[in-house]
Amino acid sequence: MKVVKLCALALALAVSAGACGGKKAKTKVTLEDAKPGRDAELYRDAVKNIDKGNFDGGRIQLNIMINTYPESPLLRVAKLTIADSFYLQGGSKSLAQAEVEYRDWTEFFPDDPLADDVMMKMAEIHLRQVMAPDRDMTHARLAERQLKEMLRRYSNTDRKAEAESLMTQVQELEGMHELKVARFYYDRREAAPAAQMRTKEILDKYPNFSRFDEALWLHARAMADQEDTETASQDLTRLVRSYPHSEFRGRAEELLKKWGKAVPEPDPTKLAEGPPETKGVTSRLFGFVFGPKIDTSAKGVIIDRNLKTDEIVARAQAVGSRTNPGGLVTPGAETTSNSPDARPRRASGATQDVEVKPGPASETKDSTTPSKDKKDKDKKKKDAPKVLRNP
C-alpha cells in the first residue's frame, strides 16, 4: 500500500511540474501593447539574436513584431528576415523551410525590388545541397529550374551575369552525370541504345559542357553499333572540326576513313585556342568525395553576418522605407499581362491594371427577371391536379 501511495504522489508531482513548465513556455510568445517605435526595437533585438545564432529567439521576436505592428514599414523586411534566419541556420530541414518562406514572400511581393535577389537565394538553397556527379541530381535540376525562372521573370536584373555563371556550373555537373551513366551503359552493360540516349541528352541540352567531345565520340560509337554510320559520321565530323585538340580526334579520323567519309579540316579558330585546361588529380578527387564546389553566398538577403547589428538594421530600415511598386498582393489571385515592365502583376489593387473578363451570359441578366426554367416550373405547378385530402 505504501508503494502505491508513493507512486501516486510522484505522479502528481510530475504532472504539477509539467503544468508549471507549460505555463512558463506560453508566456514567452505573447502579444504586446503597441507602442511607437517598439517595432524597430523588436526588429533590432531579433537581428541581434539571429546574428548570435539564437535563431528561434530571433524568429519569436519577429513574429511578435509582425502580429503587433501589421502597419509597420518594417513588415516586408521582417518577413524576409525570418526566411534569412532559416537560410543562415543551414541543414536540410532549415533550408527547406527557408525556401518555403522565400517563396511565400515572392508570392506576396512579386514586384518588390528585392524579388530577384530572393529568387536567386532560392536557387542557392539547392546549390548548397548539390552532390557529386555520380549522386542524385535532384537539387541540381531544381537549382537550374529556379535560375531559369528568375532570368525569365526578371530579365533586366543586375544579377544576370551571376545567375548565368551559376547555370553554367550546374549544367556542367548535370552533363558529367549523364556522361558517367552513358559510360556505364556502353562499357559495362554493352547497351548501345541506352548510351545513345544519355549522350544525346548532352548534345541537345549542354552545348558548353567541358567533355562535349567525349559525348560526341560515345554517341557516334553507340550509333555505329546500331548500324547507323551516317549519323555517327556526322558526330565524328563535328568532333574533328570543332575539337581539334580532343584526345578522340585521331580515332575519329580513322573511323571516317574506314567508312569512306571525307575527313574535315579543323576550325582554325578552335585550333588557335589551344587545348582546354584540365583539373588536377587532387581537385578531381575532392570533387568526387565531397561534391562539386559551387560558389554560393553565406549571406541572407537582408542579414549579413559580416556587418554589425546597427548596419543591418539601418539597411533594413532603408529597404522598408522604399515604396513597394506592387504592394501587398493575395497569392493565387489572377494576374494581368499588360504591365509596363513585362512582369506578371496581381489584379488585386486599385493602382494596378485589372483585366475584367465577362462572365457567362446567364450571369449578366437582371436577377429580377425569371428564367425560362423557372417559368416552366411554375406552369407545371399551376397545371398539376390538386389532391383533396379527407378532413
Structure report:
There is one protein chain. The chain has helices at residues 2-26, 38-52, 55-68, 75-89, 92-108, 115-127, 138-153, 160-188, 192-205, 212-225, 229-242, 249-258, 268-273, 281-290, 309-321, 372-383, and strands spanning 335-336, 345-346. With 391 residues, it is mostly helical. Among the domains are: 26-112 and 309-321, Alpha Horseshoe (Serine Threonine Protein Phosphatase 5, Tetratricopeptide repeat); 164-295, Tetratricopeptide repeat domain (Serine Threonine Protein Phosphatase 5, Tetratricopeptide repeat), CATH 1.25.40. Strands 1-2 form a two-stranded antiparallel ribbon. A hairpin with an 8-residue loop joins strand 1 (335-336) and strand 2. The longest helix is centred in the middle third of the chain and has 29 residues, at 160-188. The protein is elongated, with a radius of gyration of 33 Å. The chain starts with a helix and ends in an 8-residue tail after the last helix. Residues 15-29, 280-290, 334-369 and 386-391 have low confidence and may be disordered.
